[in-house]
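Q: For a teaching handout, I want to show students what a protein-ligand complex looks like in token form. Below are the inputs, and the small molecule is heme C. Please produce the holo structure.
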Amino acid sequence: MRILLVLAWSFLVGADCLADPVASAEVDEPGRIRQLMIKVNDWQSAHPYQKPDRDCDWIRGTWYTGVMAAYRATGEQRFMDQALAWARAKDFAVGYEHSGSNRLFPADTWCELALLTGDDSMIKKVVAELNTPKDNTPAATRVWYLEEGVRYADSLFGLPVLAKLSRITGDSKYLAWMESFFFDVAYEIWDPEDHFFYRDKRFIGQRTANNKKVVWARGAGWAYAGMARTLAAISEDDIARPAYRRRCGWSLREMSNRSLLVGFLLTLCSTCWTLAQERQPVYVGARVCGSCHDGPGMGHQYSRWLLTKHARAYAVLAVPEAKKIAELSGIPQRPQESPVCLGCHATAAEAEPWERDPTFVLEDGVQ
Ligand code: HEC
Ligand code: HEC
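A: Here is the structure, written as tokens, with heme C included.
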């Protein structure tokens, strides 16, 4: 992940900081990434690519998918306000385009807003549109996601909208539509040998002047960004999860050989992703539980726990018998430092420091 971030940074600032340890050390500071996201978005807002009469298409939709990801990652209200303003201006309708999937790109933002605010009316128009029989809706045709008659890689960017609609409406029909869309497109344009999507079937079998397969790097970026977001939108036990995951992209090595552009897209995604996972401690100390779970009303739970072997499980590793047990087990360290002993004798012994809340004390044993 650090390598990816360093790459992302060097792309973003256009400087060769790979060799500069100071610059790379700064990269994963969430504050700096946050500032950068705000700066980039402010610039884009001041210089919109699409003019107001065309600003509800794949271009604008993709930008706002990023705006919502930025909101989720940072909690900055300005991102939310910006997305809401755009959504209201477009009246939560599907995009202007004809291609069945592209016109769903803006709907990703409507879904995100509905999920965050709990206001399901935000997806009303999209639901109505998808359920109206037309040549580009699943209500009328099984293959509704084409562009000028062909299945295409970037259509997969729209895939997660269906997962989100299913989540919001509780209707599994959208998941079924999503699966048949995905498997149909993947069957036709996925190259299982080299693990990438062709732009569309016209490129299958073609060769470059250097006798290489004809890869459309930017399009692959769309597909991977779609697959990664699909994985985030479906439930953990979704049976199609492994199939989606397999189509998530090239390995880093393959990527550096093939296309820096894909790398660029992926690194941008992973920057947001890392930020989205801003580290939150997992373990609080037993004393925190004790602040409520004690006293007569709670049956003196904390005080009682203090008298149990669990509370002394770490301390007991210091007794002479412990040393003997460790020796017999062939453990070289002191028992209180041995991961083997600590695995049972202390909670969260293997957790990384950031996973522990300041209230957490390893010496408190099994808590
Ligand atoms: C802010 C107060 C508070 C804190 C802090 C707190 N709890 Fe609780 N906990 C409660 C209350 C209130 C109940 C419900 C008790 C009841 O229904 O009798 C409860 C219930 C429980 C139960 C279910 C007990 C049962 O009989 O079903 C468990 C287990 C539990 N807490 C564990 C913990 C642990 C572990 C921690 C610390 C990580 C913790 N609690 C921190 C207030 C708290
Ligand atoms: C698989 C879990 C596990 C591992 C690993 C483990 N222990 Fe224990 N150990 C326990 C349990 C459970 C008890 C409490 C048994 C009881 O009191 O009934 C215990 C008890 C003890 C006691 C006696 C405590 C007392 O109150 O008398 C000592 C000493 C001890 N362990 C040392 C070690 C050492 C040293 C290691 C590492 C070499 C180790 N243990 C690894 C589970 C484990």
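A: Two things your students might notice: The first strand starts at residue 190 and ends at 191. The radius of gyration is 26 Å.
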